[in-house]
Amino acid sequence: MPSDDIDPAETPLAEWVDRLAQAKGAPGGGAACGVMTGIAAGLLGMVAAYTAHDLEARQAEQRLSDKRGLAMRAAEEDGVRSATFGAALAMDQGIDRERAVREATVDAVASALDVGRIATSLLEEVRLLADIGNPHVEPDLRVAVEALRAALEGTNHTARANLDLLARHRTADDHLDPQVANFERDLVDLAEKRAECNIIVTGWASE
């Protein structure tokens, strides 16, 4: 891991947030989305743990532990890629810089979408725990969904911004069309999950 990056799973929270506030970009918004996904998974795991009498909840608790770990690793990886991305942008103008920016931007989009896939996988756990979860920790379930919604929205913003940047640095012979098409399909899937998350929150607000 580059020395300019820090692992959110191994760093005191205050230190990680302090680093986030600096003009470094590593960690940045993508890593923050990964951490918010980890927070959502953690809170959902709490709800599952408080519903230990139910077999499905116990199974969900294990899945959520795994997903929480995936989210934190994705946050760390996004910080690594952000450092590489910043280094590419800091290069002197020229062909080498253009190539480095393209490669780093493709990696940045992929990293954001990796976080998005982990976040969207939490929706099945939300649906389950909304049905069977211990009602005494329903507020924690709602906070989890709000964190998840923020992660999904943030992932979309990050990936879209990086795709826009990539478009400005593409060349006719870069062979990136298939990859960009895959990114766009992933963003459509992400939009559907964001809409589902918004529906859940809207339903709670109308109660």
TrEMBL record:
The record's section on InterPro entries has: Cyclodeamin/CycHdrlase, Formintransfe-cycloase-like_sf
Q: Which domain of life is it from?
A: Bacteria
Alphabetized GO MF terms = catalytic activity
Q: Which Pfam families match?
A: FTCD_C (PF04961)
- Give residue ranges for domain Cyclodeaminase/cyclohydrolase: 13-167
Q: Which SUPFAM superfamilies match?
A: Methenyltetrahydrofolate cyclohydrolase-like
Protein name as annotated = Formiminotetrahydrofolate cyclodeaminase
The species is Microbacterium marinum
